[in-house]
Write a structure and sequence with these properties.
Layout lengths: L6 H15 L2 E3 L8 E5 L6 E5 L8 E3 L15 H19 L3 H13 L5
Helix pairs in contact: 2-3
């Protein structure tokens, strides 16, 4: 039997890992493009400028983010679900268990919002 960490437990562990590794993440100001696209509200003119936050690179270090929850999408429920499913696939391949039989209870609980 495989134990699956609840979302809150996983999120805390993931945040600790991100703080320790301090990986590059997409800049939250330019969304990873390196450019800021602005439209003038009065004339409709458009301009693009290099993002000041990431200096046009499109990425910043996790701990350099000024957002209250840097890399929030890295610890979101969607990522949690994807990582659990990926781990279940690996576990089932290693132990030769039926993936659908093992994953079904988790998927059902996740869809009902019962995975805390």
């Amino acid at each position: 039997m495989m134990l699956i960490a609840g979302y809150e437990q996983w999120k805390e562990a993931k945040r600790q890992m991100l703080e320790q590794e301090n990986p590059e993440i997409d800049c939250e100001e330019c969304r990873g493009t390196g450019q800021i696209h602005e439209v003038c509200s009065c004339c409709g003119g458009e301009k693009e400028e290099e993002c000041d936050v990431c200096d046009g690179r499109g990425t910043i270090r996790y701990l350099d983010s000024s957002k209250p929850t840097p890399g929030a999408d890295l610890v979101g429920r969607r990522v949690y679900f994807q990582e659990v499913i990926s781990d279940l696939k690996k576990w089932c391949a290693y132990t030769r268990q039926d993936f659908l039989a093992l994953a079904a209870p988790f998927v059902s609980a996740y869809r009902r919002g019962e995975v805390e």
